[in-house]
Design brief:
- With about 450 residues, the chain is α+β, with helices and mostly antiparallel strands.
- It has one domain: Outer membrane efflux proteins (OEP) (Up-down Bundle), CATH 1.20.1600.
- It has nine helices and six strands, in the order αβααββααβααββαα.
- A four-stranded antiparallel sheet has the order 2-3-5-6, with no helix packed on it. The protein has a two-stranded parallel sheet with strand order 1-4.
- Helix 2 crosses helix 4 and helix 6 runs antiparallel to helix 8.
- The longest helix is centred in the middle third of the chain and has 67 residues.
């Protein structure tokens, strides 16, 4: 019997890893009845993973703003206030002037330097380019996480339907067993040769095993519902159920493998991540190389100081640091030379670029393999569903005939056991195939980058 009902607890088994957190919010007095699309929308709205992904986008956007800001003038200023020695014009030619604390005065001064970058050999433009492509990488990564969330929602939703289908199947088998046991007891009490106490023992044993698997199905149902609630952001005690009552039948024809591969190339977020990532890494390599060259800039200087008890000296060859006013503009070049530091940074960025090239090669090899795997699983599930549907239909007829014969006292109880076992096994296999088909569809949507709605 274990092999007969091995698929009954699949819904619970596949969800055993799901988080089952709860919130302190009070449950809504109105019961929510949600379709799978409703669950997807709620999951995407409440998913903390998408909040983290958006924070990554905002962080990269701030780096782009920082890179853009280097195109504009930069002002550096320093202001001073403090004591200064007094000085007069008549003291200019003296060489024996000594410092006297009583002649100390105060001074205030400001020095400001303004630099406007003119040409940096790519330091600014390449970093802007890298940040721009980095934003696209983070957006693709956010889309990938959204696709992963949708995949989990569809898995939990269909897992819940599978658990309920199995539960109903076991109830149906239980009812047939109860009717057969009642008839067997009646025949034994009447002294009929068609049934004996051993038949009743067998029916009781079979009934106990069915009850065991029914409890496991109930556990799987509860676990699937709890996992779905958690994934869509509802508290554990929320009053919620799903709209669908049955696993959806296989109606649409499967797409071709070639169309799925083409769709993945056009829509899969990982492909865009790699393409944009390579552009970003290439720009960072060029930005690192730009450090070999100087920065050309237009500079402006302004310096002012004032002291109360000092005379201003009007001499272009002499500057009094405590009392003056001067400034000017100049074309400048700033060049930082080092011994191996820049080369090491260029090598590090090149290594990251090469690493991403290897990732690209890995993705181009394994993504098509992943799609083919899910495609074959879809075909297998479709064919298995057709075969098991026909098998359980025939075994159902067998079970009905066996129960009717036993009821009329012309058939052995053994036929009931065998017929119900075959029916339960094939019916469970059919539900499992339908679930596998829906899961394969979900996996194909994820593998081809189907955007969730």
């Amino acid at each position: 019997m274990k092999s007969v009902f091995s698929a009954i607890v699949v819904a619970g088994a596949i969800l055993a890893h799901a988080p089952l957190g709860s919130a302190a919010d009070a449950p809504s007095p109105t019961k929510l009845v949600l379709s799978i699309d409703d669950c997807v929308r709620m999951a995407l709205k409440s998913a903390p993973e998408l909040g983290e992904a958006q924070a990554d986008i905002d962080l990269t956007a701030s780096k782009l703003d920082e890179a853009k800001a280097y195109r504009y003038p930069q002002l550096e200023a320093m202001a001073l206030f403090g004591p200064a020695p007094g000085a007069r014009r008549e003291d200019f030619t003296r060489t024996d002037k000594s410092f006297k604390l009583s002649e100390t005065t105060w001074f205030a001064g400001t020095d400001a330097t303004l630099t406007q970058p003119l040409y940096t050999f790519g330091k600014i433009s390449e970093n802007m380019k890298a940040a721009t492509h980095g934003i696209q990488v983070d957006r693709s990564r956010k889309e990938q996480r959204a696709n992963e969330i949708v995949l989990k929602v569809r898995e939990y939703y269909n897992g819940l339907l599978l658990a309920r289908e199995m539960k109903e199947l076991l109830l149906e088998v239980q009812e047939s067993l109860d009717k057969a046991r009642a008839k067997a007891r009646k025949l034994v009490d009447q002294g009929s040769d068609s049934a004996d106490e051993m038949d009743i023992y067998k029916l009781d044993a079979f009934t106990g095993e069915v009850s065991k698997y029914r409890e496991e199905a109930l556990k799987g149902e509860a676990l699937a519902l709890a996992a779905l609630k958690t994934r869509i952001g509802l508290p554990a005690d929320a009053s919620m159920d799903i709209l669908n009552e049955r696993l959806p039948a296989i109606e649409t024809a499967a797409p071709t493998l070639e169309s799925l591969l083409d769709k993945a190339i056009a829509k899969r977020p990982e492909y865009r991540q790699i393409a944009e990532g390579l552009k970003a890494r290439s720009a960072l390599v060029e930005a690192a190389k730009a450090n070999y060259y100087p920065d050309i800039f237009l500079g402006g200087l302004f310096s002012w100081a004032y002291a109360d008890q000092r005379d201003r000296i009007q001499n272009p060859y002499i500057t009094d640091r405590f009392k003056h006013l001067n400034g000017g503009v100049a074309l400048g070049a700033r060049w930082k030379l080092d011994f191996g530091i820049t080369g090491a940074k260029v090598a590090a960025e090149q290594a990251q670029y090469n690493r991403l090239l290897s990732t690209k090669e890995f993705a181009e090899t394994n993504i098509p393999l992943q799609i083919k795997k899910f495609y074959l699983e879809l075909q297998e599930a479709e064919n298995s569903a057709k075969a098991s549907k026909e098998a359980y239909s025939n075994s159902k007829k067998w079970a009905v005939t066996a129960l009717a014969n036993f009821d009329f006292g012309v058939g052995p109880a053994k036929e009931i056991f065998e017929a119900l076992q075959a029916y339960a096994r094939m019916r469970a296999a059919y539900f499992q195939s339908i679930y596998n088909y829906q899961l394969a569809l979900a996996n194909l949507d994820y593998a081809t980058g189907e955007t969730p709605h």
